[in-house]
Design a protein that fits this description.
By secondary structure, the chain is mostly helical. The protein is 77% helix and 0% strand.
């Protein structure tokens, strides 16, 4: 009985933490949609430091476009790779395009293009 109660408390704490991260992320996304980049940046940075791959992807976009941070294509590509490795489909698509076209300092590489496109098209694999 005590073990079940502790297990239930642990699950509740995990759900609360996940929900809090989701709430913070959704707030940051709303701020981005409203072009409130200065307000969204610290939240995305904090969530990215905690490993939230969606936030990492959005930071990559900010570095890639120089929005509220200094334009840094190399940093953007590093962040795209991290997000893509953590199953963010949009990041996988960005990398696929980069390798297909030789954009953002990436070499034209058909094998890497196919790898990332396959992952993006088949996220369950």
């Amino acid at each position: 009985m005590k073990k079940q109660m502790i297990s239930g408390l642990v699950m509740a704490a995990m759900f609360t933490t996940v929900q809090a991260v989701n709430d913070e992320y959704e707030e940051a996304i709303t701020q981005l949609k409203n072009q409130q980049y200065e307000q969204a940046l610290p939240t995305l940075q904090s969530l990215a430091e905690k490993g939230d791959s969606r936030s990492i992807f959005n930071l990559a976009i900010m570095y890639h476009s120089g929005v509220e941070v200094e334009f840094n294509e190399q940093k953007a590509v590093e962040l795209y790779k991290i997000a893509a490795q953590n199953d963010v489909v949009e990041a996988q698509q960005y990398l696929a395009a980069g390798y297909r076209e030789g954009w953002w300092g990436l070499p034209m590489d058909y094998q890497k293009y196919r790898y990332w496109m396959d992952k993006a098209e088949n996220p369950e694999n």
